[in-house]
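Sequence in, structure out. Go.
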Amino acid sequence: MNSEIVDKQEVEVSNRKALLVAGFLTLIAAGIGFAVRGGILSTWSEQYGFTMTELGQITGGGLVGFGVVILFTGLLIDIIGYKPLMLIAFLCHVVSAAMLFAATSVFNASGKEACYLLMYSSMFVFAVGNGICEGVINPLVSTIYPKQKTHYLNILHAGWPAGLVIGGLIVFANGMFAWEILMATFLIPVVLYGIIVLKEKFPRTAAQSGSVSIVGMYMKLISVFFVLLLVAHACVGYVELGTDSWINKITGAIMKSAFLGTALFIYTSLLMTGLRFFAGPIVHKISSLGLLFASACIGALGLYLISIGESVPFMFFAATVYAIGKTFLWPTMLGVVGERFPKSATVAMALLGCVGMLSAGFLGGPGIGYKQDYFASQYIQEKYEESYERVKAPNENGFLMFPTITGIDGAKAGMLANNAESILKDVEIAGDRINSDEFKGLKDQADWWEANKQFAATDSGPVEESTMFGSRMAIRYTAIVPAVMAVLYLLMLVGFKAPSEEELKQ
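Output:
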């Protein structure tokens, strides 16, 4: 027997808690990276001149890779096992950090486009590590807790919002420390889960134990029910991860306080962390699909309320509704798969995770960014055309089959908001080197400010007003997605009865 593999029963009585903790830590690491990245988007926009669409593409790169790798991980688990894959994930997390920390040097030396490519690539490698972890830990927990899959999958995925809480607290230090230092904090749980993975042994998969053939695993997934699950989970990825890429920035803008936006993000993430420990009793009362239907309805309402919010108390109420709605979606979907397709869990969960992450990466992050640019640029062109001509980005952006647009340049908007204080400070630091290729991007921004600073008082209000309008409309349109999910869950509730104990044993 392979020394890295032990009988499932042995894991159940010895180290399954250690394996659960390792999985929990991987999600904390992913959550910290995600939250800190969301909290410093404005910093990246101002420092490097990215538009909202470009920022959405960068955050999307951190999800596309996630989805692709989950799928390949699911295909490889039954061949090479859990442990080697987790060690590869550890290496990916370390490499992605090294790449990201080089962003400012690359921007100074080669400009915005090279910086964009590096940051997108770094997010992709980070997502590869996250994807491998996600592909491993879901079927792993389903295996070591066979009688309480949905409950322990929700506990496992409490690690994600817990990471968001920690990351949100770290974002409060934005401005006090370089953003690179803030991002580096995700490496702490990475090191911890790496130590556990090196020490512990892992169970066999169903295919490795011989209880089902690899072909048989795939055959069991050919059903209308599984197709509906895939479509629903694509929506989950869009509305949960795609929205979370932006929600901190958007709510902070609505409340006119980045501090309150971060505080709200921390509060909702903490709420999600606690609620996920109580999924088991809820599922026992109303079933997994019933919980998903209720969650989708509540999530749609929450997003709409956020889009119309004005006061701080109302925004906290709206965010509470949204948080309750999205809390159980992702892990409970995995629980449904584990319950309905127990012997195909490695492949089924990989397919589900792949679809969810690809949707978030290709559609959610970029799509919500595009909607912000679309509505904001449309608004400012119609009402403040001269201001738009001065603050528009130098490049166009598109999304799927929708028309290409020229959004508001993030760096220009940032300079208008703070009278270019940070830019002028960097120019002063650069000194005589400002005309060298090393500081090309910074010089372009400084030149724009010198040419347009006399219009700052005229343009700052329209830019802020237009950006706010774009953010609200983007969230309002996103509320349609959980409404569609609710319809899908209702179809599954009505059209497919829950499996019997005899069917689950087959």
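Check: The chain is about 80% helix and 0% strand. Residues 1-10, 500-504 have pLDDT under 50 and may be disordered.
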